[in-house]
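Hey, quick one: can you model this chain's 3D structure?
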Amino acid sequence: MASEHFNARPVFPSGVRHAHVKHTSHFTVVGNHLAQHRELSLTAIGLAVYIQSVPGGTRIGIKDLAGRFTEGEIRIASALRELERTGYLSRTREHLPGGRIITRTVSHNRPGAVPHVQRSPSTPTPPEPPEPRSRPRVEPAPVAPEADVRPEPQPQPEPEPQPAPAPEPRPEAPAPTPAPPVPAPSDVSPARHRAACELLARLRRVDHRLLLGERDIRRLAPGVESWLERGASADAVVCALTANLPDQPRNPAGLIAHRLSAQLPPQLGPVHRALDHVPPDPFQTCPTCDRAFRSPTPGTCGDCGVGHAA
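Sure thing. Here's the predicted structure for all 310 residues.
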């Protein structure tokens, strides 16, 4: 006959198992009627537990709770209405003597029961009685040798909060780069200055983002004159100023001033062209001496013409 084992561990069915640790501080007692309520949502149950855990006088408005948790204002407002409907929360409006209206919010940890009177923050709390200097020592009860007894785990100390890291210094904004000076022509030409101003004013027809004011046109006109003085055509200047523009130029006048200075074409020397080929005169035959000579028209040669003239 097999012997019975009284210290064998029981077999737990599938499901949750609790590993309980005794709380000595920072805990809140919540009834199962709230934690296992069948008509409240998880958001309402968690919100009720949070409201019951905070000290009196804590602001629990919708905006305050939305700033504390990840849920939005609509979801928090719906959870507060659930708590009011089930009796865990009551909100009443009161009129103050100065005409101001405030909302009194009361949290009930057990709806329907007579609540304890909560002291206001201004009412002083009576001092607690001092603890006795020596407590009587309680001897532990004897434990049977065959029982499987395990020591109760000790609560772990709460870790000390880590100091907040020092904020990193923000990089200083770079100083704005001064605009390059606009090149100036070597000589003054009223006609060329007028053509430069018309070219700059006409840029907005090529691209609407290059809309310039009269003050910017007068400032940039000497740069365009320098390009025209160095042999650049008006179409070439327009193509150089409007090519590859950014999507949203912040300063069109500064962009044009930079291009007039950075892309200034070099001064070209005079162009030496070869003379055109002139064909020689055709051959003619002198009727006097029957000699061949070149002449544009028929007649006598040079020798016969000199003798005839003599």
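One thing worth noting: The first helix runs from residue 32 to 35.
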